[in-house]
Design goal:
By secondary structure, the chain is an all-alpha fold. The chain is built from 22 helices and 4 strands. The longest helix is centred in the middle third of the chain and has 32 residues, at 154-185. NDH-1 is composed of 14 different subunits. Subunits NuoA, H, J, K, L, M, N constitute the membrane sector of the complex.
Length: 481
Amino acid sequence: MNSDVIDFASLAPAYPEMLLAIGAVVLLVVGVVINKERSILVSYASVLLLLVVAAIILFAPAEGVLFNGVFIADSFARFMKVLVLGGSAFSLLLALPRAEEQGTHKFEYAILVLLATLGMMAMVSANDLMSLYVGLELQSLSLYVLAAIKRDDGKATEAGLKYFVLGALSSGMLLYGASLIYGFTGHTNLQEIVVAIANEGRSIGLIFGVVFLLAGVAFKISAVPFHMWTPDVYEGAPTPVTAFFAMGPKVAAMALMVRLVMDTFQGIAHDWQQIVIFLSIASMVLAAFAAIGQKSIKRLIAYSSIGHVGFALVGLSSGTQVGVEGVAIYMAIYVAMTVGLFACILSLRTEAGFVETIDDLRGAAQTRPFVAAIMAIIMFSLIGMPPLAGFFAKWHAFLAAIDAQLYVLAVIGVLASAVSAFYYLRIVKVMYFDEPVATFEAVPAELNIIMAVSGFLVVTYYFTVGSPLATFAHTAAGSLF
């Protein structure tokens, strides 16, 4: 009996995932039993569950390797899991006001978010090619359904279908890469692959495997040239779902890429660095110029997110601990800015419906000055204007590149930021200097609170959360070295 207790205690590093899985199943049963009109209870319970799991990870941390080496819990996993859980919780809160109009009033929406989050946490803690794939597919299958959850909307169903087809292609590429790596090293466990590379050295088959594996992960973070699904899916999916896509899945996939290249394939750093540098430059440059001609707000955000992935990869390209710290800090600030941005978009609604194009924002500052002010702050932060949070995000990424003597990459990043300023400032110009064409409805209280919190963090980052976040990121990055 005593040994059973010890065995259960040894699972402590996986308690958060176990609690989330059990909670999702329980809430699924609750959602089926209660009246569907009261599905808001499931949504609030899901937010509470995500916050409880995040609190366990933060305040009762447990580290170790479990399940015959396929699951790892370390400081890096803790950092990224907290970001994933925070992004998921905020995306659920964003979906609560006017949920029926958005198609997110069904209790299944919250359950799918929980299951996708569980898959993301499994990805972050994956220590084996098999557990990596299981986590990625659990996340992906949930996301395919979420994209098309508004079944009576042609755009949403089209978005879900496009995401499914291209997602299946990326999964095939990732599996092919994993099979090549297994074939040339004889192992699926990431730590054993490290040893195999150290003993046997690099081979052309292994390099091909790494290329295909990273291509599959690059699809999940929307890095160019694997970004083709992002603008269409972001535009077609309901806005709260788009907000979820822009936060949790990107953080989890970025964490997976960091763990693969910095830990598993550190022995062939010269090879993967070329891949990451290409992904970074291509993402920054294409996003900066492709976003200029966009009229749809969500398509512009899609290209913006592609660009920010490129900026985060600048830090990873360095292959150093400082670079990993830069990626961690960048993703944390990116989540905070994205939450506020989508809260602003969901706040601006006219009699004709939610705003969809940039022209729909005309004169927003006259009727909704608070929303326009927060949105302007976030736009300046996304550009990287000091002293806002976005400036420090890019500062850490570019500093890592400069330390690694990747001067050309850093210069390209700065120039891409300068180009991106055009389309961010255009939104500010439309809100403040154009004449209003419609009156915006009252803003729900939940969205006002989220905007206020996000705006406060973006403006006061250096004086409030900057130092604790940097310390947490330093500890997280240190666990990979």
